[in-house]
Design brief:
The structure is a homodimer. Chain A is built from 15 helices and 14 strands. Chain A is α/β, with parallel strands linked by helices. The first copy, chain A, folds into two domains: about 5-75 and about 330-440, Aspartate Aminotransferase, domain 1, CATH 3.90.1150; about 80-330, Type I PLP-dependent aspartate aminotransferase-like (Major domain) (Aspartate Aminotransferase, domain 2). In chain A, the strands form three sheets. A seven-stranded mixed β-sheet of chain A has the order 4-10-9-8-7-5-6, sandwiched between helices. A four-stranded mixed β-sheet of chain A has the order 1-2-3-13. The first copy, chain A, has a three-stranded antiparallel β-sheet with strand order 11-12-14. In chain A, helix 5 runs parallel beside helix 11 (about 315-330). Chain A is globular. The termini of chain A are close together. In chain A, about 60% of the residues are buried.
Chain lengths: ~450, ~450
Amino acid sequence: MSINNLERNYKKNTKHSNLLYQKSLKFFPGGISHNIRFFTPYPFCVKEATGKYLVDVDSNTYTDYWMGHWALILGHSPQNVSLALSKQVKNGTLYGTVNSLSIELAETIQRLMPKAEKLRFATTGSEATMYAVRLARAATRKKIVAKIIGGWHGFNSSLLESVNYPFEINEGLGLDVDNKYIKSIPFNDLDTSLQLLNNVKEELACIIVEPILGGAGCITPNNDYLQGLQEFSKKNNIIFILDEIVTGFRLSIHGAYKMFKLDPDLFTLGKIAGGGLPIGIVCGKNEILSLSNPNDKTNKNLICSIGGGTFSANPVTMTAGLKTLEFLQNNKKIVYSKINELGAYTRKELQKIFDENNADVKITGIGSLFNVHFLNNNVREINNATDVALADKEKLRKYHFALISKHKIFFLPSKMGAISYQHSKVDIDKLLNSTRSIIESKIL
Amino acid sequence: MSINNLERNYKKNTKHSNLLYQKSLKFFPGGISHNIRFFTPYPFCVKEATGKYLVDVDSNTYTDYWMGHWALILGHSPQNVSLALSKQVKNGTLYGTVNSLSIELAETIQRLMPKAEKLRFATTGSEATMYAVRLARAATRKKIVAKIIGGWHGFNSSLLESVNYPFEINEGLGLDVDNKYIKSIPFNDLDTSLQLLNNVKEELACIIVEPILGGAGCITPNNDYLQGLQEFSKKNNIIFILDEIVTGFRLSIHGAYKMFKLDPDLFTLGKIAGGGLPIGIVCGKNEILSLSNPNDKTNKNLICSIGGGTFSANPVTMTAGLKTLEFLQNNKKIVYSKINELGAYTRKELQKIFDENNADVKITGIGSLFNVHFLNNNVREINNATDVALADKEKLRKYHFALISKHKIFFLPSKMGAISYQHSKVDIDKLLNSTRSIIESKIL
């Protein structure tokens, strides 16, 4: 079967999606509300989602490994969350005031992640990382921000640089204001990173890094990479920011920082912390977060002014976050051992299947996260975003599209997959068998 | 009765709130998740909200004119919205994909506001205005952004300048990167504004303006002010951005731009458009929005990369927005005539009460929005944010605190009030009588 046949098949099965996508193009540039949500020939259009399933408008049911940008660790609309939400929505969705739920959620997070000495609730991850960087600049009175090549911290102007290959070219029009204050360093190459950092250390406010490169392809850190960056930060009074928007409550209920024995000055949370509703959180050391206290100072220019926003600490997000963390806490062992074991099984068996079929593939990942990389003559290992960009991304897109169109298994093409508590070994075995069938059909 | 007595009374009635606020201080700098949500001695802590009421943890019930940062035009949890939400939360809160609800909401908005030739859904107003400015810079290849002194467009780094008095001092630490590209102009002073704009017109990307200064004190535009800015923009190929996050669907179901006969190149929506759930939208001319189409170009640096974000177009927000706009459309005359008539009545009668009691006050507002300003020797009129800042803000805070503590009427102290469809003449008469009683008690 060829990729053309798959497209024909997809189009046959998603006629209503096609019509709606054509309509979507009339309203949205590219027909989407997030750049990565488009894939060829057109993305199917979802009408509902429960458990591990996405259902499109043609009533195709997909086993979902995209899971709401990896946010839905308990699956779509888990019962304990949706029951609480269906009550909350009758009791107010937007108080616009201090409320008891936000205090409860903060207390829960702090108990699980004591390095969250203080917190600030915002509404999105893009906001949280923007505010983290602002706090770091405020604390150090310095301007330069170091980030990882391929590191993804949202669409805010402070960090939208070196995200997509070719990394040295800027990320598009309208952005050329802030970027000279961004220094990009290569993941997993500590020597080069420290050398680059050393060149700017007098002007360096912070280093921001995801513990696992998520959007860039699910890349785990080498032995001492994160520790090396942290050590450099501590030595030079630079703020060390860990972006745990993907990893927080995913790799461990106590954060990736605990797992990797790190001591970030600031860290950001999002996704799982909001239980499927919009959230972004800046957490960290009291002395840094306290710069944002609007009540401390009489001079506005001695405060670091951060959001907040209309929707910050709204009771719907707070409820979903609380119920999700409550479930994770009460079922810690069973949830994390299940999803991590399924993750390990997936990575191991996928690698085996590709190896057995002489497909030149490297599976990356950790815990419940995984991604497939098709190697080639230039790329023999996956250590950083450049490796991922120069690997055979076209083959990866074909593989994911074959999973979608023929096997009704959804990965956002090229992006890593996340296993939720709703997935079972049966689902993984279906993924494995489908993979085998795709390789054997010579589509790739 | 003195303000001290009122505080004593407030503390007596909000003991549980006090305890929770002390607890909140342990987690959040200043105990809040939005700078403006604090007021002295401490803000009460909300446990639920329905209709026109906020209920605090001590079971005090307040008639709410803050209404979720003025977002809740139908009140807290109106039945048609909450019923639809309680179904939706069982059917997925975060698809992370193209979905039919987002197409429906876009279609509804475009029908009501045809100048939304294209739209991009983001998750907050701060994101929407940041992306609007980015698009303007992309379209013009220029950098400078003009905003209004006192204009409020959220906490993003692109527009956080000249927000709080003294306006010429920057808005705090960590922000000193972008600000040299912001030019601030005085609201309602067209001559001075045009002169300042003229000085930078070669480098000017856009002018962004709220039709009504909202956060700065509910100030309406003079006759030709907005038209004058627009004319200057069109003449000089500058992007004219109208920030309708507060006014869209509030002043008119067709936007303030229709009301004021304006033709913005871009405009932003939020608040009401999300029906009480997180939203921000960039709307406007096809040719500008299309710069953000990720599928058009092969070169990433020819695209204007904007969010989106994990939560953009999420089905919960889409449902709440749709149900809210549907209700507004189906009940257009009854809703807008009710809230606008109540608004006019409030402004007229409040002014009368203050005048009769020789209180030197100016009521501002339009439609369902209003605010009170206590004048003094220096400030005889309210035309811009400087007038508001130099008026007697302390008296305004006392007035609002007296309404809260003695009369259980909630305005976020010093901020404008918004009338929702849930409010009635009985509520307004209570506000009027309470105001009379406050003046007579000589608290102010």
